[in-house]
Amino acid sequence: MLFVISACGENPAVREGLDAALASAVFDQQINLLLLGDAVTLLAPTRPVDNSKSPGELLQMAAMFGIEGVYADRQAIDQLSLTSPFVVDASPLALDEIGQLLTDQDTVFHF
Which of 28, 69, 100, 107 is surrounded by the most beta carbons within 10 Å? Predict the structure, then answer.
């Protein structure tokens, strides 16, 4: 099962996508996350404006919930000049690799 997040940080779809992925992982589903476009900014360390968990902090919980893989759009990382350290160990993928990842999945959710 692949959860694709392409919305950027403050969009409610980001939190919804991360919450859905984490909730699915609790039920022993094989879960992968793919960050596309501006969503790769979730990899950069940030501080939440209020006391709630930031999307980046939710992303850090992925391994704890048993999420198998976190992948990121290599082109977007380069275009946004993001550099590590990232909040999670994400595997950067080229466009053809993203296409293959999408093809290999039984179920894909997009947020």
Answer: 69
Could you say which DSSP state residue 86 is in?
P
Q: How far apart are CA 9 and CA 58, in angstroms?
A: 12
Burial class (CB in 10 A: 0-12, 13-18, 19+), 1: middle
Q: What is the DSSP letter of 71?
A: E
pTM of the model: 0.87
pLDDT, tens only, 53-66: 677 778 888 888 88
Q: Which domain holds residue 37?
A: 2-110
Give whole-number Cα distances, 10 to 42, 44, 76, 110, in Å. 10, 14, 18, 16
* Count of CB atoms situated within 10 Å of the CB of 45: 11
Domain count, the chain: 1
**Listed residue (65, 68, 71) closest to 100, CA to CA:** 71
Q: Given the structure tokens 């093809």, which residue do they identify? A: 103
